[in-house]
Specification:
This protein is α+β, with helices and mostly antiparallel strands. The chain contains 15 helices and 18 strands. The strands form 5 sheets. The chain has a 6-stranded mixed sheet, with helices on one face. A 4-stranded antiparallel sheet has the order 1-8-6-3. Helix 12 packs across helix 13.
């Protein structure tokens, strides 16, 4: 017998949640077969078998969590007599669950949960999930969205290949409001609240009160948002941020980009690709910004890995472009788009979201003039990029039409001082205003 243990799939992972089992007790398992989808703090990832055999027992059911290293299933040798498997799952899954829950992991989760009794809610959909073998085929992202919104996959008809339920099917169900409503039993109390109108007295409604308001829909936080909330709170609380702002004349940058795209057609590079490359180049020249603070040491990173913030439905992820200073702008553009696409599909691996030494967050495409981003620990700084705007610019003593772009650098003062960060930002601005230097 071989125990399958909860793997560590990301550097910040403390526990994993079983998103769905791809094998059932009694199924034969070959090396390389995907046996389970595991939801980490960053993504839902498929986990493959490293040993062949027969899946004898599932110890942690779908929707349940387990600490890293805790057994989640048992594989028996090929040819071994597996006792009446089909009947085992229900009891087996239910019984061991408490053991996994008694593991230290839940204690670690507790700190972030106190304010929200909601954690109990996420487990509800899992309980309602079909445990039979007739579950329709579905993608990991679809299963996660269905679980987050309390949608029973068995109630849907997949439009993917072979009837596979895909993300679009879940989104359609959410818009229709049908299946989701069944899982949102918590809103049931609302009908009883009508009496509330007669008690409008309470002036300052608490968060709990608002959750009970029939005009408010309480959506439990998914795992991604919980983790993001915890890490960003820690960052703002523990890392003393200071901010440096700088306006950049982006006229030459846009002209350079147009020339580059004409030469690269049909491939294209974006303004953000140029910013990432320029930031990486400036970091190579200013290694004191490419650092991490550990409490005991200041780590100077010898390689420049730039994280690019990508907004997804579940929150925010930051895939990393490794060795960005050594790559061409076009290569950075291709890699960034490929990573962003897979981020939105929930298919990024932990390795692709780990190891960043600096991050870039760009909200310019939304028309945001400027903003200050929260540092993504353990990095020492993050660059926030605003929209390119048409504004008058003084050039050679003359006021002429120009294009401006705002940069805001958030810096961890424990790792980097103001003058050092200012020199880096000045160099970055110089590169963006003389873009030939970015590719020189």
């Amino acid at each position: 017998m071989t125990d399958i243990l909860m793997p560590r799939l990301s550097d910040t992972m403390e526990e994993g949640v079983i998103s769905s089992w791809q094998k059932r007790p009694g199924d034969e398992v070959a090396v390389g077969d995907v046996i389970v989808d595991i939801e980490t703090d960053k993504a839902v990832m498929e986990y493959e078998a490293y040993e062949a055999g027969v899946l004898e027992k599932i110890l942690v059911g779908e929707g349940e969590s387990a600490a890293i290293g805790a057994p989640i299933a048992v594989i028996a040798p090929v040819g071994a007599q597996v006792p009446a498997a089909p009947a085992v799952p229900a009891e087996a899954v239910a019984a061991p669950a408490p053991a996994a829950a008694a593991a230290p992991a839940p204690v670690a989760v507790a700190p972030s949960a106190p304010s929200a009794p909601a954690p109990a809610v996420p487990s509800a959909p899992a309980a309602s999930a079909p445990r039979g073998t007739s579950r329709p085929p579905s993608s990991p992202l679809a299963r996660r969205l269905a679980r987050d919104h309390g949608i029973d996959l068995a109630s849907l008809t997949g439009t993917g290949p072979g009837g596979r339920i895909v993300r679009a099917d879940i989104e359609a169900a959410i818009r229709a409001g049908g299946p989701a409503s069944s899982a949102q039993a918590p809103s049931a109390p609302a009908p009883g609240v009508p009496a509330a109108p007669s008690v409008p007295a309470p002036a300052a409604p608490s968060a709990k009160t608002r959750a009970d308001d029939p005009d408010v829909e309480a959506v439990p936080l998914n795992r991604f948002r919980k983790v993001a909330a915890r890490r960003l709170t820690e960052s703002k609380r523990e890392a003393p941020h200071f901010y440096l702002e700088r306006e950049v004349d982006a006229g030459a940058l846009l002209e350079f980009r147009a020339t580059l795209n004409e030469a690269l057609a049909p491939s294209k590079v974006s303004v953000n690709d140029l910013v990432v490359k320029a930031a990486a180049t400036a970091l190579r020249e200013h290694p004191a910004v490419n650092v991490s603070y550990t409490g005991e040491d200041l780590l100077f990173h010898k390689r420049v890995h730039v994280g690019v913030a990508v907004a997804v439905e579940d929150g925010l992820v930051v895939p990393v472009v490794r060795d960005a200073d050594r790559k061409s702008v076009s290569r950075i553009g291709e890699e960034t788009r490929e990573l962003a696409g897979r981020a939105r599909e929930g298919r990024l691996t932990a390795a692709e979201m780990s190891g960043g030494t600096f991050s870039v967050s760009n909200l310019g495409m939304f028309g945001v003039r400027s903003f200050a981003a929260v540092i993504n620990p353990p990095e020492a700084a993050i660059l926030a990029v605003g929209a390119v705007r048409d504004e008058p610019v003084v050039r050679d003593g003359q006021v002429v039409p120009g294009r401006r772009m705002a940069l805001t650098l958030s810096v961890d003062h424990r790792a980097c001082d103001g003058a050092t960060a200012a020199r880096f930002l000045a160099r970055l601005a110089g590169l963006l205003q003389n873009p030939l230097l970015i590719v020189a």
